[in-house]
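Practice problem: predict the structure.
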Amino acid sequence: MIMPATEVDTGALGPLQSVHKRSLLNVVGPLFFAVLIPAAAAAMVYAVVRFVPASDRDMLDKAWLLVVASAIGSLALLWSWAKNLGLHVDVHEHGFVLHYRSQTQPCRWDDIAELWSTPFHGATPGSGRQAKTGYTVRKRDGANILLTPALAGLERLADRLREETYRRMMPWALSQFQAGAQVTFGMYSVSRHGLAVSSPQFSLGATMLSGGAVTSLGASQTTFVPWSEFSQVRPETHWLRLVRPGLAIDWMIIYRLVPNSHVLLALLQQVFPNAK
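Answer:
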């Protein structure tokens, strides 16, 4: 959902209210692994030299190659740690500033067009393949600002982003909705009449599941489903569940695929007041 452009004051962002620096785990974790990896390799070399016969040169050569590889990996880890050491976000009254390496990205609250949740895999040491949630702020000029899980207190910052964007976007979105117009959130559009989904991959499955009417829209297709097909909207951890009575499969609106999902939920609450 992108609101019409408005005149933006380019003045100061106002007084500093809070600072979000790198989390302790993200600072200490890389250092720990940068020391642990070569130490483990060195211990293996010692074990080979101590217990493997000198005639077995092949084993010794492999051990030394492991040490060299681990040293290179540790240096790369330290380089990544050092160049991101200054990562932090300053939150001001009228916006925020992301400091990353030698660059700064300022953003006024009024400049935000879209807020996306963004999955990160292995964003911090020890997280393995477990996905963590970051956020992408898309400004009206098309520039993106990435807020990663490396930041301490990221969810508090996200709450502030949702609060500020909701305050600015919701009055316009609600007026459009109440006037009978469609309000678009990426591939989804909502109106007082129902939900429309535009996607080449999604439309066929949506039609099969819902029996909704399909109309051609350029290279993609649009599936329209009236609200009468849904009994309730249930917000869950990673998606909004639209419950379809009498059918085994509900519709899911996945947060990371939808910009400004908090505004979308607020509009759906106009249709389903019990959605919380």
